[in-house]
Structure formats: structure tokens, C-alpha cells
Amino acid sequence: MPEMEAVKPLLAQFKDERANLIPILQEIQAAFSYLPEEALRRVARKLHVPVTDVYQVATFYRCFSLKPRGRHLVQVCLGTACHVRGGDLVLERTQTETGAGLSGTSPDLEFTVEPVRCLGCCGLAPVMRVDRDTFAHLDQAKVRGIVNRYHPRRKPATVDKIAASPEKVRS
Ligand code: FES
Fold it and tell me: Which of 30, 41, 79, 158 is the most buried if burial means most Cβ atoms within 10 Å?
């Protein structure tokens, strides 16, 4: 498995201590955009822990994924405020525009699309977040322009963006 060649030097940076489990998984996640099964086995061998312990940690934290993830994380809010203003339609269009469909991740690994329960800025519903950027007052027609901004081979369109964390957004 050629990608496992990249795991060797990565593991070599760490001592064989259980305390290094999470930092090692973070490195692997960053390198591959997910945690390949064989990499998890190698981590278990290196740290002398059961592979089930490694899986437990890998599946507990949302920052880790056992499946390949897209370069951009798109979170579409389906909380109550967003839902009643058409959040489900925004999600549907986002799944189509990114190519992620119902599988969650686009075949070109550019996008992973996730429905979420609340992004903390309900007054701006419907809302979606792409990586750290928040987009407000959405409808289906605005989705393509937003997706195109992040796609390397598409022409970006001008879209109002609220470049702030939800805490900084007034709702
Ligand atoms: S319900 Fe969508 S931001 Fe709160």
C-alpha cells in the first residue's frame, strides 16, 4: 500500500507512548484527510495498545474520520430556525452542486457536506458554513455561487459572506 510509506516517517516522530495516540491520529488525519485502517493498525503496534482502543478514540472525536473527507467541510444548518426557512432545500442543492450527494463527500474529494443542528446564528437563517466562513440568508439560488468560490476549477461568484465565527455574528 503506497500511502503507508508516508505513515512511517510520521510515526517515527513520536515516542512509543500511549499519550501520543491523539497527536499521531491528528497527524495522520491531516496527511490523508482520513484515518486509513492499515494506519490505525500500525499506530496500535507502535504504541503497544489494542487496535480496538485506537478505533475507540478514532470514532469518538468528530475531527477524525474513517472515510476520506473533502478538502472543504460544508455544514448546512437544519436547526429549527433554518429548517422552517428552507434549510433542507439548501442542503439538497448543496449536495447536488458539490457532487457530494447523499454519500457526504464528493468524488473529487473537494467537499464533504454535513447537516448540523445549529450554527449559533439563528437570526440569519438559513445558514451554512464552509470551513470557517459563514453564509447567511440563503436560498437554493445562492448555493452554486458559494460552492464555486471554493472549487479550484470553477469561476467564483460574488456572494455576501459573514467572515466571522458564530459567536461574533449578531443574530
Ligand atoms: S437553527 Fe440554524 S443557526 Fe440556529
Answer: 79
